[in-house]
Structure formats: structure tokens, C-alpha cells
Amino acid sequence: MSLPFTAAMAQVGPDADVVITSRVRIARNLSGFPFTNRASAAVRQEVLRVARMAVDRANAPETVGDPGALQWMDMLRVPVRDRLLLAERHLVSRAFADGDAPRALALSRDERSSVMVNEEDHLRIQSLAPGSAVADAFATAFEIESALGAHATYSFHPRWGFLTACPTNVGCGIRLSAMLHLPGLKSTGEIERVKRAAEELHLAVRGYYGEGSDSIGDFYQVSNQLTLGASEERLKAEFMGTILPRIIGYEREARAVALAKTRSAVEDRVFRARAILEGARLLSADEATKLLGRVRFGVACELLRIPLSTLHRLLLQVQPAHLSMIDPRAAEGDEAEREVRATTVRDGLAQASVT
Amino acid sequence: MKCDLCNKQAVVHEVTIKQGTSKEVHLCAEHAAEVGFQLPTETPMAKILGAVAATVEAGPSRERTARCAACGLTFAGFRKAGALGCPACYDAFMPMLGEVIERSQAGATAHTGVRPRGSDDAQRQQAIRGALMRDLEAAITAEQYERAATIRDQLTALDRSGG
Fold first, then answer.
1. Per-domain residue ranges for chain A?
2. Contacts of B105 in chain A (CB under 8 A)
3. Which of A26, A42, A163, B55 could bond A125 through an S-S bridge, CB–CB 3.0 to 4.6 Å?
């Protein structure tokens, strides 16, 4: 298998100054089977068989060649590095990349959509879209959900809706999320207040690498927690009509305030970050992410002219599996990895300033 | 573990702690039924209705003894793992699980989103509506007006979705 770098990951969408990507994930279980955590190896194999049949039928034949068509990958046959690559691109969860139980991934050619089979739920359908294009991700994810649902029966309860292994996902089984860049709110110190307000609105706010992680580079993931008692459409409308615009508005105001009140401090942080990235010979993943975040802030504030797509690409490429794909020496040890990372970032920024 | 009264596998386990001494009871499905434990029955319909009926009389002992007949997971096991074992757990662990869900879902008491084609069996719909109406009555009796309003909203939403 080869996983070349796809442009989809570096695309720049609406509200790109604040929103990097939007994601919609739908949890579904196949009727008649225990959930994955209580399924024997034989049951997991059977779930894989049923899911594969549904994917093949949904793909057939008029959709072959369609960028959205799903390619089936037996995760146990995927080399470890490629599994990590998938996790770094947020196409599979970390737990899904690591385990050794029978499981599979159906991945669209454009790498926008994926279906994890035998994750916590039998099916985790997800679709990504650049920027704040939640509606695109929502439409694609539900297209896949209904295409697969035409060939497999989902576990559904008349009162509780779509049943999930974790009862906190029950109902619509839908998780809407956005990866946000909030350096303005961080610098004015309002981020904690926004986080508390988000929690009151039943939103989860997480760090860069997802659950339990810290924010690095002022990147935050925001997602809905409620999945019951409101229709999918209403959850979507609230998320993209109220929640995202509000956070985006706060962040833009905070940036304006930061620039108006502490312009030289902002400029200092941004230009120092660029200078380090352009000069460093060794970089850790966290340092690179943090500094790329500052440079991204500079671009959004029009202090620097670097394409956002270059920064998005570098933010992915500084992660270990991506680095070792660029240069296998990165896998040889910590210092080698940091050296390859620094070279990758320097080259990337140099190319961006030429074009 | 074996049943206290015969050699079959015990499915009900109850521990009572009274004045510092604990008393354990382990029973198979048949003997448990004789003594009066409510075990989840086979048909989904009966399960749903049974779950609703159990809402009122269930006490802390049910929290300890509840066990899903389909996959064997206990309610305590669910508490520990945070995940359910199979779709049947949803009915087996009522009403305690219902409270867990309502709490985690800001008081929502029923799904009001899309339903897969063919799932809208009229009888099941009727059962759900009946269950919600009983919940509504109970909420009003207990003067839980906020909860009552939520349930009323969900009933209205069910009507609108044509279920």
C-alpha cells in the first residue's frame, strides 16, 4: 500500500483564518451482533464480512472511479508506519491504529472519508472538509451512512435511536467537530472563559491530538456532546449556524484587540517563530507544531505572506510517520528524526517564499 | 459460579450488607424467577415494556443484580468499563441506564432524529409513546417540571416525525 501525500489534507476552506478542518463522524452498529468490546474474534470476522459486502455493493459499479468510492484495507496487513500515517491524518483513531484485533478501514480515494470497521462501534463513518464546511462533511458522511445502510441493518431502538457501545453516543450517533486555531483568545487570556462557555453548551474542547491532550500551537478541537433528543439536522444547524460562527467571531475580535494593544509583542512572537523555523537544525514535533501555529497566526493577521496550505502541509509532515515517509532516516533515532524535521520545515518555508 | 439451589450457572448475584455482615445469594435463571427477580425476557417488545414497568419499583438491589441475558454483561461491569456489551443491554439495564443517558444528554429522553426505513413498526412506536407518557405522568407527580417539558417536547417531535 502506498499513501502519497494528498492535497485534500492541506486544503484551505471557508473561515480558514480560524477553522482548519471540520469533521462529521457517525457511529453505527450492525444489528444482531454484540458490540466490538464483547465480540469474539469469530464475531469480529463476521462483522468485517458483512461490512465489506455492504461497502462493495455501495461501491458497485457506477461509482467505481468516483473519488468517493471506498477502498477496503485489512488493518492487520497495513504496515505499522502506514497505520500511524492514517492516524496522523485523522483518518483513524490512535486506538484503531495500534490494536491487533481484526479490523478494517474503508477509505475514499480522495482521503476525505473513511469507515473504521470494528472500532468501539462496528462502523465509525467519518468525513472531513476543509475550513468550516461542516455541511459538506455532513452530507458526505450521511451519503455513506445511507449507502451502507441499504445493504446492512443498523442496530436501532425505537426509543433510544441508533444504539452505540457507549451510551453517551446513543440517538443520532453523530459527532460534529472542528479543528480551530485560537491564538487570539489565548493571547488575550479569554480562552478559559470560552472553554467554560463551550462546556455549558455541552461541547467538548480538546487539544491538538484529541482526547486528553494539551493544546499545542493554540489548536483546539471542539465537538458536540449531545446526540439524543434533537434531530441530526438540528444538531448540524446549531453547530454551524450558532456555535462555530460565535467562536470564530470571538477569535477575530481577540486578534484585533491583541494587534491593537500589543502589536509589537504579537509581531515579535510571529517573526521569532519564523526565524527559528528557518534557522533550526533540530526540531521536536511539539516545538515545530507550536512555532508553525505562531507563523500561522502571523499569516492570518497579514504580517506574513505564506500560503496557509503550505503551513497545513507542514503541520502534518512534522509528525513522525509522515517524516519517515519523506526521509526514512527519520526512523533511525530521535536526533535523526529532529534533523529531518528541521530540514523538512526549512525546505517547505523556502519553497513557499519562492512561489 | 453455581446456583445456590441447584447445579446450574448462576445469573443473578445479590449481596446484602446488614449490620456489618454480608449475605450473598447466587441463583440460576429459573430459581431467580421463582424468587421473583425480574429477568429480561426474550422478545424485544416484552423487554421494552418490562423495562418501563420496572422504572418505578427498581431499587438499589437491581443495580447490583441486573445482568444482560444476551451478552452476560452486568450493570456493575458496564459501570466499570463505561461501555455496553450489546444492543440488548439497553433494555436489560433499564431504568438505571435511562438515568445515565438522560444525565449525559442534558435531560433528553428519546431519539427524535431520522429512523431507518422499516424500523417504524406501529406497535413498537405505540409502546414508546406509552412509555414516554408514563414518564411524563411520573415527572409531573414528582413536580419535575423541567423534565416533564422535555418529555412533552420529545412526544411532539415523535408526532411530527410521523412515527
1. 8-250, 263-351
2. 168, 170-171, 226-229
3. A26
